[in-house]
Amino acid sequence: MAELRALVLVLGDQLDLEAAAFDGFDPALDAVWMAEVAEESTHIASGKPRIAMFLAAMRHFAIALQAAGRPLHYTRLEAGGNAGSLAAQLLSDVARLKPARLILTAPGDWRVLQALKAAAHTCGLPLELREDRHFFSSVREFASHARGRKSLRMEFFYREQRKKHQILMDPEQADRPVGGQWNFDADNRAAFGAEGPGLLPARSRFEPDEVTLEVLALVERRFAHHPGSLASFAWPLTRAQALQALSAFITERLPLFGRYQDAIWPGDPWLYHAHLSAALNLKLLNPREVVAAAVAAYEAGAAPLASVEGFVRQILGWREYVRGIYWTQMPGYLARNALGAEHALPAFYWNGATEMACLRDAITQTLAHGYANHIQRLMVTGGYALMLGVRPQAVHAWYLAMYVDAVEWVELPNTLGMSQYADGGLMGSKPYIATGKYIQRMSPHCKSCRYDPALRSGDRACPFTTLYWDFLMRHEASLAKNPRMALQVKNLTRLSDEERQAVLERADAIRRCEEGALPDASL
User: Fold this and answer.
1) Angle 162-163-167 from CA coordinates, rounded to 5°
2) Which of 92-101, 188-197, 349-358, 415-424 has the lowest mean pLDDT?
3) Burial degree of 87 (CB within 10 A; 0-12, 13-18, 19+)
4) Do the Cβ atoms of 161 and 135 come closer than 8 Å?
5) Could you give the angle at the alpha carbon of 201 between the alpha carbons of 198 and 205, nearest 5°?
6) Burial of 245 by CB count in 10 Å (0-12 exposed, 13-18 middle, 19+ buried)?
7) CATH architecture for residues 139-201+253-329
8) Nearest to 260 by CA among 302, 337, 198
9) DSSP 3-state assignment of 393?
């Protein structure tokens, strides 16, 4: 066997033929390494849609690598002798292949990075870590932005990025946003109204081919006891499919994306959302081409500025910001629990068996598709866990397990920071809490629910409303110091001692009824 100059390691969220790890790749001297291992699905008990998403996309990428003429050493999950973890499999394969060095594009998971570094050290090989080019800014650039600031806010970072990359900027004044304002959130909070969303564009579906069907069968066998269903699995798994999904979104849903980006409608998970985050996070799409396509639609008059800015903000703003937070704050970030929350995650998060209509819809949808929109994640499943006082690490484990787009760099800050306020305000300037009246305003769920969002105590009181007031009382002293929470805290003065006691008793009853636990991660 000829000496192998370099073994290029490709992880399940690095499915890009143009990744930095391939710079200088020579098929005569180098080879690619990929491995499907059980640990990546069991270190948290991943849902079936998420497991299938990664495995099927990896297998399709293996085909693309072979078509590109790149020698590939690929270990399937069901292969005899599979070592079970990335580090163990790498050690086994390095002993056989004897490369002179290892090359890796920076991973999206701290745990994986440490494991692969340790494996490289154990086998005595240099590990060359290369920049992930699938972002507008590097971690170093974010660290430079953050250095010396008393507080971090996405809005300021986002504006810097708009200026730097000249995205949606006035061509006559390079430092002025097109349309004269940076933020169109006020235009992007509409509900559908009693008549509902009407005729919606169809979801971009990609029916499973033979490769994907084989994966779906494997997941059903190997992970039979994991949550979720594969019955509707139809996600884009290749570069070509991802580009088709992007084109469909820009043409069919972007024009109304902004207006209805916060709306919820029972039984319809797709609405006007993009459904592109999984393809982006697997690196099947580049954020630059996604943003460029949206901006081009605005410039062609095919989509309004408010919609396009709202979409660009999610990609250029939040996506880049959370990555910076993750890599500058890890590993300590994972342990944060600023509110001292210690309640167990309710068992219904794993089966949707709750009488709360909004939560039942969001969770059953998540189990069916591995997907929920950002309001369902932030204000429904996330908001309920926050107000209930669930240990943030348990909430993080659930989000990481359940969503097809969940890679830890993006999921952890959004969950632990933005959703659960466990970082004390680093990600978000306030806890995102609301009574059931918010759900009533943004969806018709309350009409079919046994609970009344206007009541805060008693058996018919909406648990969201009860827990909202309970949360304010439990954290009154600290929340009173937050300018953005001052009005909400002040509203506590409206409650008599008797009303306060009734809320506390109702909240305690809710917690007693909803004790649960995470499923065994060894499943």
Assistant:
1) 45
2) 188-197
3) buried
4) no
5) 140
6) buried
7) Alpha Horseshoe (1.25)
8) 198
9) helix
Closest among 102, 108, 160, 164 to 139, alpha carbons compared: 108
Q: Which amino acid is at 110?
A: W
Architecture of domain 347-513: Orthogonal Bundle (1.10)
pLDDT in tens, 144-182: 999 988 778 899 999 999 999 999 999 988 899 999 999
- For 459, counting Cβ atoms within 10 Å of its Cβ (0-12 exposed, 13-18 middle, 19+ buried), the class is exposed
Q: Which residues lie closer than 8 Å to 214 by C-beta, 6 or more apart?
A: 59
CATH 3.40.50.620 assigned to domain 4-130? The reply is: yes
Task: Delimit the CATH 3.40.50.620 region(s) of the chain.
Answer: 4-130
Parts of the chain belonging to CATH 1.25.40.80: 139-201+253-329
**Which stretches within 22-125 are classed as H helix?**
39-42, 48-67, 86-97, 110-122
Phi first, then psi, for residue 325 (nearest 5°) are -60, -45
Joined together, the tokens standing for residue 451 give 């609970």
* Tokens 């005729």 sit on residue: 199
**Which of 523, 83, 206 is CA-nearest to residue 216?**
206
User: What pTM does this model have?
Assistant: 0.95
Round to whole Å and give the CA distance between 353 and 165.
47
Helix (H) or strand (E) run with residue 506 in it: helix 497-513
Q: With contact defined as beta carbons under 8 Å apart, do 47 and 228 qualify? A: yes
Please determine, for residue 517, whether its predicted confidence score (pLDDT) is greater than 50: no
Residue 491 DSSP one-character state = G
Residues in contact with 363: Cβ distance below 8 Å, sequence separation at least 6, in sequence order: 348, 349, 351, 352, 354, 381
